[in-house]
């Protein structure tokens, strides 16, 4: 017997006990109440079933909408055109001179621009700015003067990454280093000359800073499960 039937039997028994007697009028009223309650239970069950169907339909529509948004955002992101990104620069655009030593670490401004595809390197500040999220490769070269070490420090967003170091007691020496970095769009990369260090350069362009994009790293904005 279902819960509804058991509930109705208990209700009838309670009504009969309260009256104390079992007359035809009491029985008729009890049966009418039972019918009314049964009808109300059926009505409520139907409403609950209808509400459950509506909820399932809404959930299905919401999921379909989310999937469409996911596809839209992913397509939009992947369709952003990425041009060629590469640059190469040297310390001096003319003449011959030394850079440093300074009392504080100083950003090196490589003024002579050999190439700057994508306009990613700023020869006024010495800073490279990543245009897209991707993997980039950078190279630095430095020329030292005898008696004063040549150190150049490649930095990403203010944090040191790699250093090139050379220390010759006399004459000249060269230092170099290279690194591959994952950069987000807007990240900056530049080179600094530490305090008390010095570089020497001329028209042969011994001190250089170069970099290029190896490949992009696409990142979808959709978080579909």
UniProtKB/TrEMBL annotation:
Stretches that traverse the bilayer: none
Gene Ontology CC, one term: extracellular region
Entry keyword annotation includes Secreted: yes
Database matches in Pfam families: C1q
Major localisation: secreted
UniProtKB keywords: Secreted, Signal
The C1q domain, residue ranges: 80-220
Signal peptide (residue range): 1-20
Locations listed in the record: Secreted
The protein's name in its UniProt record: C1q domain-containing protein
Organism (species): Periophthalmus magnuspinnatus
